[in-house]
């Protein structure tokens, strides 16, 4: 059970950048001293996601998961989403090592609601104690 809330701390309403920054720290618990997520659309219509995640006194593992109805292919550092003859490139980077994988979206428990026709793209990164990871995605 999550015992926290996410607060919008900043918004951008420019022609070249529209979006918001959200403070997620209280939703992640005491193992995280800071967690900011920024999401915006740029002038070209590309979607950006940037997480700045700071571990508290112990190392911590973060997962960032995207659910999509598209078919996901990972080829080295290249990720492509494809559906209905259209494709989307996912550029990704982080200042700490991380992994990317595609997971089924089958419900793990009988009481979970199914999400047929979708999968999850999951990024996992380990952040040393008292360090900040900056994870970025760009969908073009």
Rg result: 16 Å
How much helix, percentage-wise, in residues? under 10%
- Which CATH architecture is right? Distorted Sandwich
Low-confidence stretches: none
Q: Output mean pLDDT.
A: 95
Overall tally of domains: 1
Strand content: over 45%
User: Termini distance?
Assistant: 34 Å
Helix/strand order: EEHEEEEEEEEE
Q: Characterize the main sheet.
A: 8 strands, antiparallel
CATH class: Mainly Beta
* Strand tally: 11
Spatial strand sequence of the major β-sheet? 1-2-3-4-11-8-7-6
Overall spatial form: globular
Total helical segments: 1
Structural overview:
By secondary structure, this protein is an all-beta fold. It has one domain (7-139): Beta-galactosidase, Chain A, domain 5. The protein is built from one helix and eleven strands. It has one helix at residues 25-28, and strands spanning 7-14, 17-23, 32-42, 47-55, 60-68, 71-75, 78-83, 86-94, 98-104, 119-127, 132-139. The strands form two sheets. It has an eight-stranded antiparallel β-sheet with strand order 1-2-3-4-11-8-7-6. The protein is globular. The termini are far apart.
């Amino acid at each position: 059970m999550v015992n926290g809330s996410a607060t919008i701390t900043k918004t951008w309403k420019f022609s070249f950048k529209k979006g918001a920054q959200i403070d997620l720290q209280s939703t992640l618990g005491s193992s995280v001293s800071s967690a900011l997520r920024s999401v915006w659309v740029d002038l070209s219509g590309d979607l950006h996601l940037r997480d700045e995640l700071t571990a508290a006194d112990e190392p911590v593992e973060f997962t960032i998961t995207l659910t999509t109805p598209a078919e996901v292919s990972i080829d080295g550092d290249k990720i492509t989403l494809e559906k209905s003859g259209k494709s989307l490139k996912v550029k990704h980077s982080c200042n700490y090592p991380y992994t990317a994988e595609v997971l089924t979206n089958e419900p793990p428990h009988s009481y979970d609601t199914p999400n047929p026709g979708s999968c999850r793209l999951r990024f996992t990164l380990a952040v040393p104690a008292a360090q900040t990871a900056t994870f970025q995605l760009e969908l073009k």
